[in-house]
Amino acid sequence: MKPVVVFVLGGPGAGKGTQCARIVEGRALRGALGKYGYTHLSAGDLLRDERKRPGSQYGELIENYIKEGEIVPVEITISLLKRAMDQTMAANSQKNKFLIDGFPRNEDNLQGWNKTMDGKADVSFVLFFDCDNEICIGRCLERGKSSGRSDDNRESLEKRIHTYLQSTKPIIDLYERMGKVRKVDASKSVDEVFEKVVQIFDKEG
């Protein structure tokens, strides 16, 4: 069975991780909601975990890219994503639906994905959390007080937002032209945003 993928994109602090966790749980305001059966894979978390893994061949390289707010080479990110999908499906062949959060982040990512995963995974749509940059920065600075993430500081965040606007937004625009983007106003409260997300997944299945 091939993986079915939803790319989850938006600026740093747009709420991608928070909303993905809710989609996986299938938690809605209006009571119990059937789980959609997705597994959440965060490209950033996979990279951060790999960076900390003792003996990782990529660790130091990943650390330098993340600190500079730059995008890690695509081969590394895709190999980590593919490994995570393979492990999930090996453990349970029914679990073939994935939310890939924070990827593809630039043209190079997208080309790398198309080259490596062509015919091996189906992208159903892009879930785009659209959020004002200052709101995003405020959320990340707040998160930085407890997250322990080295990139939750204003200097890194401004670099990350710049990278997002220069590199990721054109990818979202490209999928938009293909009719594959489902946009959510992510400046609202967590619950309000999730209400919209539920509508999208109820429709998409």
UniProtKB/TrEMBL annotation:
It is found in: Cytoplasm. Transmembrane segments: none annotated. Pfam families: ADK. It comes from the Eukaryota. GO terms for biological process: 'de novo' pyrimidine nucleobase biosynthetic process; pyrimidine nucleotide biosynthetic process. GO terms for molecular function: AMP kinase activity; ATP binding; nucleoside diphosphate kinase activity. Its main location: cytoplasm. Keywords: ATP-binding, Cytoplasm, Kinase, Nucleotide-binding, Nucleus, Pyrimidine biosynthesis, Transferase. One of its GO terms (cellular component) is cytoplasm. HAMAP family: Adenylate_kinase_Adk (MF_00235), Adenylate_kinase_UMP_CMP_kin (MF_03172). Belongs to the adenylate kinase family. NCBIfam families: UMP_CMP_kin_fam (TIGR01359). This is KCY kinase. The gene is Cmpk.
